[in-house]
Design brief:
Number of helices: 6
Strand order of the largest sheet: 2-3-4-5-7
Strand content: 25-35%
Radius of gyration: 16 Å
Shape: globular
Low-confidence stretches: none
Structural class: alpha/beta
């Protein structure tokens, strides 16, 4: 099913999404990869505030290439989500509602997604140039010294993703295999 959703993501929208849904996000999302996640994790351990409020937000695991041709960003493809699995549960507890990446997630992350009513989306790997066309604005808001791993605030319009793990724990990677094997 195709769904058009405004982000930040509210509880009702997150709960209504199902594994396999095609979703087009419009609004504000944030980028963060390995180095930024490590910094946020360390900040939490030290009792410090994070550079962004996690409540209802979506984090895209992406490190962009430099902007070009009058565009706000260069290629903007997803990175492997499992590298953030160590950090995801603590951010989900703070209210993070969505994550965008590619690849499978750990059992612990799946459990945390269900516990916190969140969603894991996949963006198509290798389609970074195409995905960047849905990004209307990009601004570094934290950890500028990390370069492409800095946290960015992105304004997106109809950014295409697929629900991989929904808030009930349904996992498209598992259900797709089962459906394929039945045929």
């Amino acid at each position: 099913m195709d769904r058009y959703i405004c982000v930040p993501l509210n509880n009702e929208d997150a709960a209504a999404l199902r594994a396999g849904d095609y979703v087009y996000l419009t609004g504000v999302i944030y980028t963060a990869r390995d180095a930024a996640h490590k910094r946020m994790y360390e900040a939490l351990a030290e009792g410090k505030e994070l550079p962004i409020d996690m409540k209802n937000n979506v984090i895209y695991y992406m490190g962009p290439s430099p902007e070009r041709d009058g565009r706000p960003i260069g290629s903007a493809g997803p990175t492997t989500a499992s590298r953030m699995d160590k950090y995801a549960p603590s951010l989900l507890k703070l209210g993070l509602k969505g994550m965008i990446g590619k690849g499978k997630r750990s059992r612990e992350v799946k459990a945390s997604i269900m516990e916190n009513g969140a969603v894991y989306f996949a963006a198509v790997g290798g389609a970074g140039a195409l995905l960047s066309k849905a990004i209307k604005a990009s601004e570094v808001i934290a950890y500028d010294e990390l370069g492409t791993e800095a946290i960015r605030r992105l304004e997106v319009e109809n950014f295409p993703v697929i629900v991989v793990i929904d808030s009930e724990g349904n996992d498209l990677y598992e259900t797709a295999i089962t459906a394929y094997n039945r045929e």
